[in-house]
Amino acid sequence: MTQPIIEINHVSYRYEKENVLEDINLTINSGDFLGIVGPNGSGKSTLLKLILNLLKVQKGSIKLFGQEISRFKDWQNIGFVSQKANSFNTGFPATVFEVVSSGLTKKLGLFKFMSKADQATVLHAIESVGMHEFAGRNIGELSGGQQQRVFIARALVSEPKLLILDEPTVGVDVKNVQSFYEMLDDLNKKLGITLLLVTHDIGTISDKVTHVACLNKNLHFHGNTAEFESLNINEMSEIYGHDVHVLTHNHDHHDHHHHDKGAGR
Amino acid sequence: MIAGILQYEFLQNAFLTGIIIGIIAPLLGVFIVVRRLSLIADALSHVTLAGIAASLLLEKKFTGLAGLNPLYMGMAFSVAGSLFIEKLRAVYKHYQELAIPIILSGGIGLGVIFISLADGFNTDLFSYLFGSVSAVSRQDLWTILIISVFVIALVVLLYKELFLLSFDEEHAKASGIAAKSVHFIFIVMVALVIAASMRIVGILLVSSLMTLPVAASIRIAKGFKQTIFLSMLFGEISVLGGLTISYHIDLAPGGTIVMIAVLILIVTILLKKIAGMRPA
């Protein structure tokens, strides 16, 4: 049975005079892997802030796990990896294990120490992002993509049911993007974590996502990936407001169609 | 020298105090360095100087205050200075580092005025500026011991929070831990440890004991806990080595301690270079 995790109904948002979001309707069900793409300034970060309750809803309503957002308390069920996560001090002398452990700080509470079971949870989170070999390495020695995985592990360690990722592939090597998505796919399929991923780059949306939505003030929901791929270039331009150049992962040449991504499925 | 320590109380005071600050100064130093707040230690040490000078001045003007331990006034000034720094950082949101030179120069300015008002406490002041083996009293030792128990307990209890605050302040705030309170406790601890350390290392060199051992260990350590451990080890070697040398050839211990810390730093940099050249 699919349970709605996020329900957004007729949400609009404006900063002073400018409308940033207009009548957004979106439902994310348990087990979904939704990719939201939108150009810069399309209201992506505003939408995320609304979902994370960092901004108050002005018009419409948002429900999280079936509960009105203003009354929602179980924030440990939601993991968030911000875009800023990879702008940390790379010279910081902390191991991957220590960084991931820090994700338990709030959950453990003041004056509490990590138990054996907590340490196992941390190791498990590190394993689930494929970084177990690096648990003892300093975070600064890792590549951008590996660091991003560590931050995902940090979000996973409190065992969230929903994981929200803001531009997670920024700073990840092009050649590693594919395996990065495979890792997300594992989290989604094997651990049953609902994923919401936001990016400005259509090209980095992988075939691993189950649903795609395009955002530019308005939200165009395209259901499954196949539907999204069948969009023609005119519709795409309408959303983005200019000519779109879609880059695919598997090809070196630029292409105007978002095709062939399903080859591996 | 062992016989000397057993025999003379002042040597016991100096070495025991040295052992304690060799642990707590680098312990807090690790958090200071990774949070890029190294200069705060310098600012606060100069404020401590103003407190010491004020205390010495009062002692001179009012004979009734003759027994007053300048350490207490130094601590009070240091803690007050730390609170001012926090206030100023909030006022100058976009120029947070400006708080440090403001407090630093304010501290020196005040200190110089107090010193000139009470001309003639040169030798005493000298020991505060550069540290002293002979000037540490039993009362100093007890005060410093109490502070260190308090500081170590707080660092252990708040370790998770301090780590998260240092590594990722944004995330710390977002995840709902009491970042502001933890930071406040931290900065007060720093102020206390600076005042406590100046007896041995001297006001002008206190910050070095908080930063040099950390600078060395950060080059070679794996992980945060190891960084803390190595920093304390290097701090301890510097303090004990420095005190021993300064006792034997009658030098100000501040200088010898700092020079050993610098030496350790150079060795770790060279070691890392050599390790880097070796084919893996």
From TrEMBL, chain A:
This entry's Gene Ontology molecular function terms read: ATP binding; ATP hydrolysis activity
Is this entry keyworded Nucleotide-binding?
yes
Q: What's the superkingdom here? A: Bacteria
Q: What is the designated name of this protein? A: Zinc ABC transporter ATP-binding protein
Pfam families the record matches: ABC_tran
Q: Which residues form the ABC transporter domain?
A: 6-242
Please indicate if the UniProt record lists Transport as a keyword: yes
The UniProt entry's sequence similarity note says: Belongs to the ABC transporter superfamily.
Q: Which UniProt keywords are present, listed alphabetically?
A: ATP-binding, Nucleotide-binding, Transport
What PROSITE patterns does the database record attribute to this sequence?
ABC_TRANSPORTER_1, ABC_TRANSPORTER_2
The record's section on CDD domains has:
ABC_Metallic_Cations
Q: Which residues form a coiled coil?
A: none
InterPro entries under this entry?
A: AAA+_ATPase, ABC_transporter-like_ATP-bd, ABC_transporter-like_CS, Metal_Ion_Import_ABC, P-loop_NTPase
UniProtKB/TrEMBL annotation, chain B:
Please name the SUPFAM superfamilies in this protein's record.
ABC transporter involved in vitamin B12 uptake, BtuC
Q: Which family does it belong to?
A: Belongs to the ABC-3 integral membrane protein family.
Main location group? membrane
Question: Which positions, given as ranges, span the membrane?
Answer: 14-34, 39-58, 70-86, 98-121, 141-165, 228-245, 251-271
Q: Tell me the organism.
A: Sporosarcina globispora (Bacillus globisporus)
Where does the record say this protein resides?
A: Cell membrane; Membrane
Indicate what this protein is called per its UniProt record: Metal ABC transporter permease
Q: Which UniProt keywords apply?
A: Membrane, Transmembrane, Transmembrane helix, Transport
What is one term from the GO cellular component aspect held by the record?
ATP-binding cassette (ABC) transporter complex
One Gene Ontology term from the biological process aspect of the record: transmembrane transport
Which Pfam families does this entry report, sorted A to Z?
ABC-3
The topology of this chain with respect to the membrane is: Multi-pass membrane protein
